[in-house]
Design brief:
By secondary structure, the protein is mainly α. It has a domain at 39-94: SO2669-like (Helix Hairpins, Orthogonal Bundle), CATH 1.10.287. The chain is built from three helices and no strands. Helix 1 runs antiparallel to helix 2, helix 1 packs parallel to helix 3 (69-92) and helix 2 packs antiparallel against helix 3 (69-92).
Length: 94
Protein backbone atom coordinates (compact mmCIF):
# COMPACT_ATOMS: atom_id res chain seq x y z
CA UNK A 1 0.00 0.00 0.00
CA UNK A 2 2.74 2.47 0.94
CA UNK A 3 4.70 1.72 -2.23
CA UNK A 4 1.59 2.32 -4.35
CA UNK A 5 1.11 5.71 -2.71
CA UNK A 6 4.77 6.55 -3.28
CA UNK A 7 4.51 5.53 -6.95
CA UNK A 8 1.38 7.65 -7.36
CA UNK A 9 3.12 10.64 -5.76
CA UNK A 10 6.18 10.21 -7.98
CA UNK A 11 3.98 10.02 -11.08
CA UNK A 12 2.01 13.10 -10.06
CA UNK A 13 5.18 15.08 -9.28
CA UNK A 14 6.68 14.16 -12.65
CA UNK A 15 3.48 15.17 -14.46
CA UNK A 16 3.36 18.53 -12.64
CA UNK A 17 6.95 19.25 -13.63
CA UNK A 18 6.29 18.28 -17.25
CA UNK A 19 3.20 20.54 -17.27
CA UNK A 20 5.24 23.43 -15.85
CA UNK A 21 7.91 22.93 -18.51
CA UNK A 22 5.23 22.98 -21.23
CA UNK A 23 3.77 26.18 -19.77
CA UNK A 24 7.18 27.83 -20.01
CA UNK A 25 7.45 26.74 -23.64
CA UNK A 26 3.99 28.14 -24.40
CA UNK A 27 4.84 31.40 -22.63
CA UNK A 28 7.96 31.86 -24.72
CA UNK A 29 6.06 30.95 -27.90
CA UNK A 30 3.51 33.67 -27.13
CA UNK A 31 6.28 36.19 -26.52
CA UNK A 32 7.92 35.37 -29.83
CA UNK A 33 4.58 35.44 -31.67
CA UNK A 34 3.95 38.92 -30.30
CA UNK A 35 7.17 40.18 -31.88
CA UNK A 36 9.28 40.14 -28.76
CA UNK A 37 12.73 39.47 -30.11
CA UNK A 38 14.89 36.84 -28.42
CA UNK A 39 17.55 39.53 -27.87
CA UNK A 40 15.09 41.66 -25.88
CA UNK A 41 16.04 42.03 -22.20
CA UNK A 42 12.44 41.34 -21.14
CA UNK A 43 12.38 38.11 -23.14
CA UNK A 44 15.64 37.02 -21.51
CA UNK A 45 14.38 38.03 -18.05
CA UNK A 46 11.19 36.01 -18.42
CA UNK A 47 13.08 33.01 -19.75
CA UNK A 48 15.73 33.14 -17.02
CA UNK A 49 13.15 33.58 -14.27
CA UNK A 50 10.95 30.76 -15.53
CA UNK A 51 13.87 28.37 -16.02
CA UNK A 52 15.23 29.19 -12.57
CA UNK A 53 11.81 28.55 -11.02
CA UNK A 54 11.49 25.21 -12.79
CA UNK A 55 14.97 24.17 -11.73
CA UNK A 56 14.07 24.99 -8.10
CA UNK A 57 10.87 22.93 -8.40
CA UNK A 58 12.88 20.03 -9.78
CA UNK A 59 15.45 20.37 -7.01
CA UNK A 60 12.68 20.33 -4.41
CA UNK A 61 11.02 17.27 -5.93
CA UNK A 62 14.40 15.52 -6.09
CA UNK A 63 15.13 16.30 -2.44
CA UNK A 64 11.75 14.83 -1.49
CA UNK A 65 12.62 11.75 -3.56
CA UNK A 66 9.62 12.32 -5.80
CA UNK A 67 11.74 12.20 -8.93
CA UNK A 68 15.23 11.01 -9.71
CA UNK A 69 17.95 13.55 -10.39
CA UNK A 70 18.28 12.12 -13.91
CA UNK A 71 14.56 12.64 -14.55
CA UNK A 72 14.83 16.25 -13.46
CA UNK A 73 17.84 16.84 -15.66
CA UNK A 74 15.99 15.25 -18.58
CA UNK A 75 13.02 17.60 -18.09
CA UNK A 76 15.30 20.66 -18.16
CA UNK A 77 17.35 19.35 -21.09
CA UNK A 78 14.22 18.60 -23.11
CA UNK A 79 12.79 22.06 -22.45
CA UNK A 80 16.10 23.70 -23.37
CA UNK A 81 16.20 21.76 -26.65
CA UNK A 82 12.66 22.85 -27.51
CA UNK A 83 13.43 26.45 -26.60
CA UNK A 84 16.56 26.39 -28.76
CA UNK A 85 14.54 25.16 -31.74
CA UNK A 86 11.96 27.86 -31.11
CA UNK A 87 14.68 30.50 -30.83
CA UNK A 88 16.39 29.35 -34.04
CA UNK A 89 13.08 29.36 -35.88
CA UNK A 90 12.37 32.91 -34.69
CA UNK A 91 15.83 34.03 -35.78
CA UNK A 92 15.37 32.57 -39.27
CA UNK A 93 12.06 34.38 -39.72
CA UNK A 94 13.62 37.81 -39.05
Amino acid sequence: MVSQIKLKQRKEAYEVLIDDAEQILRLIEVQIENFMMPQCPLYEEVLDTQMFGLSREIDFATRLDLIDEAEGKAILDNLERKLNVLHETAQKSL
